[in-house]
Structures are given as C-alpha cells and as structure tokens.
Amino acid sequence: MSQRDNPATRSELLAERARIEREIAEYTSGDDSPFPSTPHDTTDADVGDEADAADDLEDASRNEALVTVLRDRLAEIDAQLARMDAGGTSHQ
Fold first, then answer.
1. DSSP characters for 4-38?
2. What is the three-class DSSP state of 44?
3. What is the DSSP-derived secondary structure letter of residue 91?
4. By CB neighbour count within 10 A (0-12 exposed, 13-18 middle, 19+ buried), where does 1 fall?
5. Is the pLDDT at 32 greater than 50, yes or no?
C-alpha cells in the first residue's frame, strides 16, 4: 500500500505539523523571535541581575536552537506531504 493510500499517515503528519507549529509559537511568543520579549535591564545590574541576564541569554540560545530543529522537522513534514500529493512515498 502506498503512503498516498494511507489516510492515517496523512492525518498523523498533519497532526504532527500542527503540534510543531504550536511549539514554535510558544517558543517565539508569536513574534517569530526565539529571544525573550522583555530582557532584563542590566544598566544598574548587581550580580543577581547579571546572573538573570545570563540565564535569559542561555534560554534564548536554547530556544533558538529548538526552533531551528522544529522548523527543520516542519520542512520534512511538508516535503513528505508534497510527495504523497504527487503519488510518491513518504520515505526518503
């Protein structure tokens, strides 16, 4: 049975695509940016504020990497769906 004939596969891909889009939105806060929307002001920072700012930067870097992985997976899903639409299989 080809992947085109398997509606469960298409449904699973579409569900995964929707889940990934939601995750990307969560990480980017809807503004397509993996960085915090309100970074700490460090103009008069003490050690605690500097540590908080460093944590924010680390979180932003991690989020950016996660968003990149998620977008790559989204592209793979889109390619699989396109192959299914063209009558090919979902295997690369």
1. GG-HHHHHHHHHHHHHHHHHHHHHHTTTT--S-SS
2. coil
3. -
4. exposed
5. no
- CA torsion 38-43-47-53 (nearest 10°) is 30
Integer Cα distance of 32 and 72 in angstroms:
15
Is pTM, for the whole model, over 0.70?
no
Q: What is the mean pLDDT of residues 7-32?
A: 87
Q: Buried b / exposed e across 41-74, counting CB within 10 Å, b at 16+?
A: eeeeeeeeeeeebeebeeebeebeeebeebeeeb
Q: Which two tokens stand for residue 3?
A: 């992947």
78 CB neighbour count, 10 Å cutoff: 12
